[in-house]
């Protein structure tokens, strides 16, 4: 059970890191990546396979 909690916590940290990094980008930079600002949460979730 502890391993599952640790894995969940690590996934959450990776999600937050990805979300924050994408959120710091300008709309132009996001557009260059093919991401809309409203898609940031979805993209961050995909990064950790939520």
From TrEMBL:
| InterPro entries found in the cross-reference section | YjiS-like
> What sequence ranges are listed for the domain YjiS-like?
5-40
Which named protein is this? Answer: Uncharacterized protein YjiS (DUF1127 family)
Instruction: Look up and give the organism this protein is from.
Output: Kaistia dalseonensis
* Biological classification of the source: Bacteria, Pseudomonadati, Pseudomonadota, Alphaproteobacteria, Hyphomicrobiales
